[in-house]
């Protein structure tokens, strides 16, 4: 289920075609169903009516992406790991809802790198740490994200760059953001560490 804080669009991410629009504050549902002998997925509006049937993926995005976000409810987080849990995620940017066959659906959040780091830094380092420590964390988290995307590609077969758990970096969307963490990201915007002229690999704990 998802609820947008402002007007939103549903698009086909492969073609960019707009499928439908929706309003703020109303709960929509994406769920698995059957189409003959095959699994399919339906998008159900707040009145319980099916508005769209899809087999691969759809994209949800606020009409005003700098002002609004979308809350996805009752998610299985870090499923199959020691830190798995259930909860909600408030996400900015574009969110693709993708088919996973008989295992249901999964989300891929597409957003700018610096916005991503806002949701990482205070999940990986407490906001009360000194500003210089937070800046260092912002730089190594930026490196880790870029290095993982370019060279490690752990999740390439699933079509995304990083997961949101400890396997990659903990990212929890807007709920993970804090003022001091955002300030550290802004103060180091675009800065990375290099080794021998190349992007450095910066694992951390």
Strand order, largest beta sheet: 3-2-7-10-11
Low-confidence stretches: none
Rounded to the nearest angstrom, the distance between the terminal CA atoms is: 34 Å
Radius of gyration: 18 Å
Structural class: alpha+beta
Beta-strand portion reads 25-35%
Q: What is the residue-mean pLDDT, rounded to a whole number?
A: 93
Q: Can you count the beta strands?
A: 13
The shape, in one word, is globular
Give the helix level as a range of percent: 10-25%
Number of helices: 3
N-to-C order of helices and strands:
EEEEEEEEEEEHHHEE
User: How would you sum up the major sheet?
Assistant: 5 strands, antiparallel
Could you please describe the fold and organization of this structure?
The chain is an alpha+beta fold and 205 residues long. 21% of the residues lie in helices and 33% in strands. The protein has a five-stranded antiparallel beta sheet, with no helix packed on it. The radius of gyration is 18 Å and the shape is globular.
């Amino acid at each position: 289920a998802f609820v947008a804080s402002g007007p939103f669009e549903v698009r086909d991410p492969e073609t960019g075609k707009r499928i439908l629009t929706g309003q703020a504050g109303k709960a929509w549902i994406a769920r698995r169903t059957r189409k003959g002998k095959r699994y399919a997925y339906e998008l159900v509006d707040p009145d319980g009516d099916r508005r769209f049937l899809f087999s691969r993926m759809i994209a949800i995005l606020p009409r005003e992406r700098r002002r609004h976000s979308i809350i996805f409810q009752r998610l299985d987080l870090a499923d199959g790991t020691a830190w798995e849990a259930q909860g909600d995620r408030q996400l900015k940017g574009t969110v693709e809802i993708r088919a996973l066959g008989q295992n249901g659906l999964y989300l891929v959040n597409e957003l700018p790198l610096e916005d991503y780091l806002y949701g990482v830094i205070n999940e990986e380092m407490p906001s009360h740490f000194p500003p210089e420590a937070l800046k260092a964390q912002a730089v190594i988290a930026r490196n880790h994200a870029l290095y993982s995307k370019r060279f490690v590609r752990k999740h390439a077969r699933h079509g995304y760059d990083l997961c949101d758990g400890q396997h990659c970096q903990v990212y929890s969307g807007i709920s993970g953001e804090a003022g001091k963490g955002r300030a550290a990201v802004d103060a180091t915007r675009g800065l990375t560490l290099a080794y021998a002229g190349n992007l450095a690999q910066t694992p951390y704990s």
